[in-house]
Amino acid sequence: MVMTQVVDLGGLLVSAFVVNLALSLLTLAILRWLMGWFDLWRFVWDPPLAQFGILICLLGLYTLIL
């Protein structure tokens, strides 16, 4: 498996970490909407802390996968 450090977006070189972060934020936004839709935030004691933890886990997951 080849890990790329830089992604070429139409001639613009972007760090792979920035791409992973953007993907993590997009996934977190979708998860926030779904948890709000199903009212699952009532089971969480501190939602901002939980969202930060989910963001860090997603970032690590996307970094390992991609």
From TrEMBL:
Pfam families: DUF1656 (PF07869). The keyword Cell membrane applies. The keyword Transmembrane helix applies. The chain crosses the membrane at residues 12-35, 47-65. Keywords: Cell membrane, Membrane, Transmembrane, Transmembrane helix. InterPro entries: DUF1656. This is DUF1656 domain-containing protein. It comes from Gluconobacter japonicus.
